[in-house]
Design goal:
By secondary structure, this protein is mainly alpha-helical. It has 20 helices and 7 strands.
Length: 520
């Protein structure tokens, strides 16, 4: 076939030279369906790019152990020792830990005992890598049309570069496990619905497994419970559109049966106290900054993925809308819950991003088909990447390096092995000194945490200092005890002042009493 001089060149004609072939590619950017052969690189390689982005941007983050990390690793080590020796874990971690304590903390502490803090953080990175792959599979299974850019690739890139995901990929937290399990459950559930017409029993088995992952995500990380109804609603809507009508009900029943397996097993094995922990976690409200200011901060953190997800629910039509809409509602609920909870902005926002990116990836794939859509993709990608990098770096600079504090306290422990101490945010000391200190030797000043001779909080601490029940104190002014109590009035001496890196004029003040230290 030959072309006349007036006939426009298109991809239907063989490119006579390499330069002409590139002209076809550039000329067709954003102008309709693309040739799968021409755009094979664009359709299949971005997943590897997303995994590379996740790995590089998370590994660049660095700081000492964070308070909630230290708490989980300390409690996990204590639980593992209790399993081996039969001693009691008397602090009741089920009331303050964000998941069933006997699940994630022992595993994380075991990994930490082998690979250190970096090792357990690498485990989190691996879990988030699986979550990124699940996003790719899930979004493609839901929305890929076989033409243009794969929505799964765009969703995976958006997920891997978001601030909450980068933070959780480098912290040893149960929320990372919850997100990974939930996304894997969604991907498995969608794939099960797609194969239901070919193999009914295989589809029902996969649906049962997907439900099991959903249930496990609930008891590993309590906040996941808020995302589960919307995830299941999306799976139900997808089944209605993809599966044969005669097995839709069986598919949904398998999902529900799988989802209740893990919670029922937790009730039987662990007992009802995990429900108390879930209630405390999900109803906790911050008494600090106002709802409006926190909400604005949240919008700044997740404006790209969450904004695209909410926009997709408004502009998408057809069968896809039935899947996108419950996910978008879940995004709004999780963002609102994060505004009420305050504090750590990754607690619920990681889940919100997980529900947001499938719809966002689909919207971006549609955008890529319009003229100059590539320019919009570049702008969105740049905004997501730069904000994710800046936000994750800000989070890792928000707590001081506790290494100098642990080192100074270790000197006192070397001299007085059975010393008792009390401090503000003592989790880093409990974690860093595990194996050298017994749990009863370190106590906190949080409201309701310190009790002595029938007293509690400030009264109990004052009485304990006066009676020589405590011999070392470290304060930084973060609680009422550190601001109101002067240990020198009870015979203590100020021995060290340890500056807190990353904070403004912050420091730990270490007080010690040297007279009549008990032998044990």
């Amino acid at each position: 076939m030959t072309m006349s001089r007036t006939q426009p060149y298109s991809s239907r004609h063989a490119a006579p030279t390499p330069l002409a072939r590139w002209a076809v590619v550039v000329g067709e950017f954003g102008m309709g369906p693309r040739s799968q052969a021409t755009f094979q690189l664009l359709r299949h390689r971005p997943l590897w790019a997303a995994l590379a982005v996740l790995t590089v941007l998370s590994l660049r983050l660095d700081n000492s152990v964070r308070t909630d990390e230290a708490l989980g690793l300390f409690v996990g080590s204590w639980i593992r020792r209790a399993w081996a020796t039969g001693e009691d874990v008397y602090s009741r971690p089920d009331t303050f830990y964000g998941g069933v304590p006997s699940l994630y903390p022992p595993l994380a502490s075991l990994v930490e005992s082998i690979g250190g803090l970096l090792g357990v953080r690498l485990m989190s990175l691996l879990l988030m890598a699986f979550a990124t792959i699940a996003v790719f599979v899930l979004t493609d299974a839901l929305f890929d049309t076989g033409q243009g850019w794969r929505p799964g690739s765009l969703a995976a890139l958006l997920f891997a570069s978001s601030g909450p995901v980068l933070v959780q990929a480098h912290l040893a937290l149960p929320g990372t496990v919850g997100i990974a399990l939930l996304l894997c459950a969604l991907a498995l559930g969608v794939r099960a619905a797609r194969c239901s017409a070919d193999n009914r029993w295989r589809a029902l088995s996969a649906a049962l497994g997907a439900g099991g992952l959903v249930g496990l995500s609930i008891i590993v990380s309590y906040p996941t419970l808020l995302a589960v109804p919307f995830a299941l609603a999306a799976l139900f809507a997808n089944a209605r559109a993809a599966g044969p009508p005669d097995i839709i009900q069986h598919y949904r029943l398998a999902l529900l049966l799988g989802a209740i397996q893990a919670p029922v097993l937790a009730l039987v094995v662990v007992g009802p106290q995990w429900l108390t922990g879930a209630w405390v976690t999900l109803t906790q409200v911050s008494a600090g900054a106002g709802f409006g200011s926190v909400l604005l901060h949240i919008v700044g953190w997740t404006i790209v993925p969450l904004g695209l997800a909410l926009l997709a629910s408004r502009v998408v039509s057809g069968p896809a809308l039935a899947v996108v809409r419950p996910l978008a509602v879940g995004v709004a609920v999780l963002a609102g819950r994060q505004a009420l909870a305050g504090g750590d902005l990754t607690a619920y926002l990681g889940l919100a991003v997980a529900l947001a990116v499938p719809g966002a990836g689909m919207l971006l794939a549609k955008l890529a088909k319009v003229r100059y859509g590539w320019a919009a993709l570049v702008a969105v990608g740049y905004a997501a990447l730069t904000t994710g990098m800046a936000q994750s770096q800000d989070v890792f600079g928000s707590w001081p390096d506790s290494t100098p504090l642990v080192r100074q306290v270790s000197y006192a422990v070397d001299a007085m092995p059975w010393i008792r101490m009390v401090g503000e945010s003592p989790e880093a000391v409990q974690y860093g000194m595990w194996g050298r200190l017994e749990p009863w030797q370190v106590q906190a000043t949080y409201p309701g945490s310190f009790r002595y001779n029938g007293l509690s909080d400030l009264d109990a601490l004052r009485a304990a200092l006066a009676d020589n029940y405590v011999q070392l104190v470290f304060f930084d002014g973060s609680t009422e005890a550190g601001r109101l109590i002067d240990p020198t009035a009870y015979g203590f001496r100020l021995t060290d002042t340890v500056a807190q890196s990353g904070t403004t004029n912050g420091a730990w003040r270490i007080y010690q009493r040297f007279d009549a230290v008990p032998a044990r």
